[in-house]
Write a structure and sequence with these properties.
The complex is a heterodimer of chains A (470) and B (504). Chain A is of the alpha+beta class. Chain A folds into 2 domains: 200 residues, v583 fold (Alpha-Beta Complex); 216 residues, Enterococcus faecalis V583 domain (Enterococcus faecalis V583 fold). In chain A, 40% of the residues lie in helices and 21% in strands. In chain A, the strands form 6 sheets. In chain A, strands 6-8-7-3-9 form a 5-stranded mixed β-sheet. In chain A, strand 11 and strand 12 form a beta hairpin. In chain A, helix 5 packs across helix 7 and helix 15 crosses helix 16. The two termini of chain A are 41 Å apart. Chain B has 504 residues and is α/β, with parallel strands linked by helices. Chain B folds into 4 domains: 91 residues, 2-Layer Sandwich (Gyrase A, domain 2); 68 residues, NAD(P)-binding Rossmann-like Domain (Rossmann fold), CATH 3.40.50; 143 residues, Rossmann fold, CATH 3.40.50.261; 179 residues, 3-Layer(aba) Sandwich (Rossmann fold), CATH 3.40.50.261. Chain B is built from 18 helices and 21 strands. In chain B, strand 12, helix 10 and strand 13 form a beta-alpha-beta unit. In chain B, helix 1 runs antiparallel to helix 4, helix 8 packs across helix 11 and helix 13 packs across helix 18. The termini of chain B are far apart. The chains are: A alpha+beta (470), B alpha/beta (504). At the A-B interface, strand 1, helix 1, strand 2, helix 14 and helix 15 of A face strand 4, helix 5, strand 5, helix 6 and strand 9 of B.
């Protein structure tokens, strides 16, 4: 140490770092926050981080998790009627976003979407009767995540809806997500009137089959490379999907045209996809689910395999603790509102779309999409990189195939490590749309929200018990 | 009209307490505000807020990862305005508009990430709250870094464990509660800009190291490295692990020709180990266990100093300052019927040294941090020669250290200047990195406000012209305010002793 001038890592008072920098000493300032753990849980954290003890086992398991994430080969292969690929979707069965929840605790938009889906499926004659049916206990609710599926915002999936099929060819598993309905009055934001239901019918009966035919004819569309290009074009795949939607449309259009005998029908399909910048979001979500499912159940791994919210609870699942959900109350997004709306109109955070952050996109890839940083109210465009750097600190590694030009082509951070979240007190940043709290009104803004730290402290405690017993 | 207490809680928000205290101080200036405090919602902080009459229901529900903004004001409108002002300042800080100037600092979210951004880093400077400091220090050691722990409130068990782990890894732990170091010419935390030279310093006291380094500079000498070890290193519970490691390092360092060791006296078991090590040292050593006689068993090769001034003088072989205390005392205008000295110190070791000098001059002194020759007393003791360490725990609980925020000294100074029994007020002013940008301002403003009739004021300034505050300007402004400025802390205390002798 008594040799040359030291390079310094400053952990704490910022003034010490600026003093050193002013003297020309190389210094990095750690934006320190206290760990999210206290007391006995801090001891659990210490054990799980100790590189000469259990920490080595956890890190090795996380290495396997990261390998599986990076080895994934997701391909959009098909669009199917939901109950063809999810046999559990029978009469009176509804899948929803987030961790498990019953009718009694559902937020307004989710109730609205449930009622709409019941009418759509013909289980009740009108919305009022539908709400009564749902409240009566005659409807069974399950998370999408329990059936290889994901859904945006309310995430409602019922038997006759169209779902996209993404196959992870490296592992052979498949994941499903409904088709994006566009903006405005839509079921994912709790919309449930005749117009909403008619669009869902059209998606299932017309656009879905057309896409299916085109996808089968083209042999599927490999998504990894497409997403890589989208990142370089300013998408982060959660609040900005305009580049990937365009790339997808460009890839699909010839096959769609070849398979279509009806120019008007083809035009409507192209119009719908081309007019909806967020069309690719649902593809990215199914891709995320397809990538993360093979990462589940690696003993001792502290890598997060799912983050999801139902408008009431935020839930996460962790590889080493299997199918368990760790939940905490969802938070309110902070962001910008469309004209005429304010925070008072906002519904709490909702949707399975956080699977996108789970694979290192969305808030984790903010640096790729400076336009989004402004749009979601996260600060100046120049601050976008700060988000990605912070997410790298809680991630296991980086994805060398998904790079960010503005960060000198550093890969997106991926593999959220529960230990690092708890140790740093830095929660995952999520880019999200904001729904109106009343059903049927739709999106009122967009913003950022943090995953509640309480989910991660619970997961750490459970993992500590799991690893300690092994 | 009864006051209203309003709390606002920001979930998952952290800012270091010094920054928070600065915001708090600014909010207190808002019209209609009686009290205001911004604190992280740890149980102990919530207790402090409750005792201050600043805790409302919203704040009670806060957790250790939340920030509580607490205001007591004359009415709701004033409270609302104060909270808005606080939020505005917080957002300014959070957006990176940091008040401290200086060069650009690269940022990272964790220590591990910082290592990837600065692989050539060799030292971690840790100043997080004490409850977390040992954790961060352990992470730093495991990342292969030497560690300087500025934080206090680290348990002595953690301190020993960290130092043992460091020894195994061939690394050095400076601290905890280490405020000052000079490594290879780089001042860390609270340190002065002094020239490089061939004297190596090992110090358990931050201001002790600062004063010695400044006095060496005044004598034309310089410092090779200044290694802080933390105030408890020579306790038997720690065993002098860092002191021994520092001695090893300086003995092996070709740039170091002699060594000065500044500490409290070692514990009985540790004394033998340190004496053994010093006896074997191939370089000349000066030891100073401030306020204590030379401990038995100190090898004859070690020269012993009882003050910082003597330690620096022994290291260079002549007195580091020339000061005619009697002559300076003769220039003081002493008030009639007054007969005691009141010392108000921002540096704890400077307070101890002043006690030693006064006691040796035959003055009966008392202090809230007494050396063996002084007796214990606290602020409010009347008619005694009272030297107060304003950096002691009772003054700094929930408040910044007076070296960071000299306003802390304003009230005691105002009281001393108005006290008819006080003949001489004795002050220290500590400059350097980390210290307040203009520490004399609070002193000269308070003296100006008190008027000319009060006690004489004698001060010393621990600093150099290369320090960010600049020695010359600070001294000139003190002198313009009528303060007699001595060339060292020991000299200032000698002037005070001479003044008391003149009174008789």
């Amino acid at each position: 140490m008594l040799g040359a001038r030291p390079g310094v890592v400053n952990v704490g008072l910022a003034g010490f770092a600026s003093d050193l920098a002013a003297q020309g000493v190389p210094v990095v300032g750690v934006d320190w926050s206290p760990p999210a753990a206290h007391g006995a849980l801090l001891d659990v954290l210490d054990r799980l981080e100790d590189p000469s003890g259990l920490g080595a086992r956890v890190s090795a398991a996380n290495g396997i998790a990261l390998e599986r994430m990076l080895a994934a080969d997701p391909v959009l292969v098909d669009v199917r009627r939901a109950d063809e690929v999810i046999p559990a979707l029978g009469e009176h069965v509804i899948l929803h976003a987030g961790p498990p929840i019953g009718w009694d605790r559902m937020c307004g938009p989710m109730r609205g979407a449930v009622a709409g889906a019941i009418v759509l499926e013909g289980w009740a004659a009108d919305l009022e009767a539908a709400a009564e049916l749902a409240a009566s206990g005659a409807v069974t609710f399950h998370p999408n995540h329990h059936f290889d599926a994901v859904g945006p915002m309310t995430g409602i999936t019922t038997r006759s809806m169209a779902v996209m099929v993404v196959e992870n060819r490296a592992f052979g598993n498949r994941a499903y997500c409904t088709l994006n309905e566009g903006l405005g009055k839509v079921m994912r934001f709790g919309g449930n009137d005749a117009e909403v239901r008619a669009r869902l019918r059209w998606l299932a009966d017309d656009l879905g089959p057309a896409l299916a035919e085109a996808l089968r004819a083209s042999g599927g569309i490999a998504l990894k490379g497409l997403v890589a290009r989208g990142l370089s074009m300013g998408d982060e795949m959660h609040q900005r999907n305009v580049a990937c939607t365009s790339l997808l449309l460009r890839a699909l259009a010839p096959a769609l045209a070849r398979c279509s005998a009806d120019a008007a029908r083809l035009a409507r399909a192209l119009d719908f996809m081309g007019g909806n910048d967020q069309f690719f979001l649902n593809v990215a979500m199914a891709m995320g689910k397809a990538i993360m499912d093979p990462v589940r159940g690696i003993p001792s791994s502290s890598v997060v395999t799912a983050m999801s919210r139902n408008g009431t609870d935020f839930g996460i699942r962790v590889s080493g603790t299997g199918e368990r959900w760790f939940t905490a109350p969802v938070e309110m997004p902070r962001g910008l509102y469309f004209p005429g709306f304010t925070e008072a109109d906002a519904n709490p955070d909702m949707g399975d779309s956080t699977i996108v952050e789970t694979i290192g996109l969305g808030g984790f890839a903010m640096a790729a999409a400076p336009a989004v940083a402004g749009f979601v109210g996260a600060g100046r465009a120049s601050e976008a990189a700060t988000y990605t750097h912070a997410m790298a600190a809680i991630s296991t590694g980086r994805n060398p195939e998904w790079t960010i030009p503005a960060l000198d082509f550093a890969g997106v951070p991926c593999g959220i490590d529960v230990r690092r979240v708890v140790a740093s007190g830095v929660a995952p940043t999520i880019n999200t749309g904001i729904a109106h709290r009343e059903p049927g009104i739709g999106q009122v803004g967009a913003g950022v929200v943090r995953a509640p730290l309480a989910c991660f402290t619970q997961a750490l405690e459970a993992l500590g018990a799991e690893v300690g017993d092994a | 009209m009864s006051a209203v207490v309003v709390n606002e809680v920001r979930r998952g928000f952290y800012l270091d307490s010094v920054a928070l205290m600065r915001v708090s101080a600014a909010v207190r200036e808002t019209a209609g505000v009686e009290a205001a405090s911004l604190m992280i919602g740890t149980p102990s902080n919530l207790e402090i807020l409750a005792e201050a009459g600043l805790l409302a229901d919203a704040g009670r529900a806060a957790g250790p990862n939340d920030l509580v903004l607490a205001v007591r004001a004359t009415d709701d409108a004033a409270a609302g305005a104060a909270l808005a002002a606080a939020v505005e300042r917080l957002d300014g800080l959070a957006s990176g508009a940091v008040e401290e100037g200086g060069g650009r600092v690269a940022h990272a979210a964790t220590l591990e990430q910082a290592m990837t951004r600065l692989p050539q880093a060799r030292l971690a400077l840790i100043s997080v709250p004490g409850a977390y400091a040992a954790r961060e220090a352990r992470r730093a050691l495991r990342a292969g870094l030497h560690v300087m722990i500025f934080s206090d409130n680290v348990s002595i068990e953690d301190e020993r464990a960290l130092k043992l782990e460091a020894a195994e890894r061939g690394l050095l732990v400076m601290g905890p509660d280490c405020g000052t170091a000079l490594i290879g010419g780089t001042p860390l935390a609270f340190a002065n800009a002094v020239p490089r030279g061939d004297v190596g310093l090992v110090a358990a006291s931050g201001t002790g190291m600062q004063e010695v380094s400044v006095l060496l500079a005044r004598a034309g000498a310089g410092v090779s490295h200044g290694i802080g070890v933390g105030g408890r290193d020579l306790y038997d519970a720690v065993g002098g692990l860092s002191t021994l490691a520092a001695l090893d390092g300086l003995e092996a360092d070709p740039g170091t020709r002699s060594i000065v060791l500044i500490s409290k006296p070692p514990g009985a078991d540790t004394a033998a180990r340190v004496a053994h090590r010093l006896a074997a040292c191939t370089k000349p050593v000066v030891a100073c266990f401030l306020g204590h006689p030379a401990p038995p068993g100190l090898p004859p090769s070690v020269r012993y100093a009882s003050t910082l001034h003597e330690a620096a003088s022994l290291a260079v072989g002549r007195s580091v300052t020339t000061c005619d205390a009697e002559a300076l005392a003769g220039r003081l205008t002493l008030p009639a019927n007054a007969g005691v000295v009141r010392g108000l110190f921002t540096g704890g070791t400077l307070c101890a040294e002043a006690q030693v000098v006064l006691a040796r001059a035959g003055v009966a002194v008392a202090s809230n941090a007494p050396v063996p020759a002084a007796r214990a007393a606290s602020e409010g003791a009347v008619g005694v020669n009272l030297l107060l360490d304003l950096g002691a725990d009772e003054y700094t609980l929930g408040r910044p250290h007076p070296m960071i925020e000299p306003v802390v000294r304003v009230e005691p100074l105002r009281a001393a200047l108005a006290d008819p029994s006080v003949a001489v007020v004795l002050l220290d002013v500590v400059l350097g990195h980390g210290a307040h940008a203009d520490p004399v301002a609070a002193v000269v403003d308070t003296i100006a406000a008190a008027g000319a009739a009060g006690p004489a004021v004698v001060a010393s300034v621990c600093g150099t012209d290369a320090d960010p505050q600049g020695l010359g300007g600070q001294v000139r402004r003190l002198e313009a305010a009528g303060v007699v400025v001595a060339p060292s802390n020991a000299d200032a205390a000698a002037v005070a002793a001479a003044a008391l002798r003149r009174i008789g």
